[in-house]
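pinned: reference chain
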Amino acid sequence: MKIVILAAGLGSRLGNPLPKPLTTLKNGKSIMQLQIDNISACFDINDIITVVGFKKEVVMETFPTSLYVYNPQYDQTNTSKSLLIALKKAKNESVLWMNGDVVFDAKLFDAILPHIKNNTSFICVNNEECGDEEVKYRTDNNGFVTALSKTVKDGEGEAVGINFISSSDIPTFIRRLEEVDDNDYFEAGIELMIKKDKVNILPVDISAFNCMEVDFKEDLDNANKML
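pinned: its structure tokens
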């Protein structure tokens, strides 16, 4: 399995001059450092691939021993294309990936490890009420995801930005990420393979664990309260 951290974006909404994953938390660690520390508690950190773009040199100098792929069109494309670059490097391995701005408790892995071991594709979700900016999801009668985007009506909760695609579903996912628009989020590729390829994506509820995607200063304040 490969682990991918998406850290190519501008992160302009937070208003920091540095890439958002380098944002310092109240414990003195950056968001990305906390992610790597949490990952290393359960997985081999040599399996981490970080996608860089905006001010890539700063990220690479901060974490000099990590593996990187570069999205040269980071300012013209969205997470769908950044993830696509990484998946092509991972080839046919299963992939666990996360947005580079997600602050989470390492205990969250307790909930998702059984599904990783079973090689079951999933997205991490919570059951909180969502606003316009959150990625929302809906499920069918069998409990699998049917819709996944910011525009989902009557969403059942939020997709928090930590996801896993099994090795058997990776070729299909790559094909659908190639198909979506440059400005689409990676969720568009997941939604497309659900609709066109009938791929089952399980929503894994991690509501019991601290997990916050940092888009705005308010999110950063709430993430710091979790630490």
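why pinned: The longest helix spans residues 79-90. Residues 26 and 51 are 25 Å apart (CA to CA).
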